[in-house]
Amino acid sequence: MNTLRPFLASCVALWASAVCAQYKVVGPDGTVTYTDRPPPDAKAQAVPVSGVGGRVDAANLPSSLRPIVGRYPVTLYTSPGCTPCDQGRSLLMQRGIPFAEKRVETDADTAALAKLSGDRNLPVLTIGPQQLKGYQSNDWQGYLDAAGYPKTSALPPSYRNPAPTPLTTPAPAPKPIEQRRPEPTAPAAPPADPNAPKIRF
Question: Which stretches of sequence are listed as region Disordered (predicted)?
Fold first, then answer.
């Protein structure tokens, strides 16, 4: 039992360091790291973690939930006909977790999901920088607890989560090439009649 305590303590420390991250830092070489401080390197790009995977409008939330949602936004990645996705959605709704939902329906969505999570399995749940693959009720509940979400709903009865949106934005259709009309030309003169009388002056 004593040998497990250092291991559990290290796990908690790793989880805390991930959850406390407020910035997603993209370095000039494309390396992505999470940190709780803005990067001093001007070449690095800092993006608030709350902007990853969509955002819930905090203005419609109780004041007790706003700081939690701002630091650890929840995003659920689903697809139609996915039973584990439906189970995960039900868990979030029953617990009163404000979340954004991203649908994976097209080939472009599937490719984006593979880039995001490393595979194409659904559902995927993100809580701030933490990513959970597959639906495991106990795991989801534990990470939501660690992020500070209440165990029972604090949302008003009138609250509705944002409607699901596609994971990727379809590219706009190309504009049709404008066909230039040919410029009108003067009608050709009729051919001369060889039998017409020749008049000389």
Answer: 154-201
